[in-house]
Amino acid sequence: GAGTRCSASGGAELRGIVINNVGHPIKNVRAQLVVFDENRVPLLGVSTPTDPDRLPQGGMANFHFLLKDQKEEIKDYFLHANWSFDEAP
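-> C-alpha cells emitted (89 positions)
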C-alpha cells in the first residue's frame, strides 16, 4: 500500500509499506513505481530499496519515493515489489 502528497517546492512523494506474506524469508526487496500520464502512457519508472531490504515471513518494510521534478500529485501509478528468496540458515 502507499500514499501520496505533493508540494510545489519539494515535488511529489509516495510512501508505503511492503508486507512479506509469501511464506518464506525474502531479501533484496525493492519497490517499483511506474507513473502514467492522463492517457495511461508511462511517464517514468523508478525503483528503490525498502527499509529493511530483508524480511522474515510476516515482516514489514517501508519505502519512499521523492520525485522532485513532478509538480503535481501522483494519481495514476502502478506499484509492486521485487525480491528474491532468502536461503540463508
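Strands lie at 2-7, 11-19, 26-36, 42-49, 60-67, 77-85.
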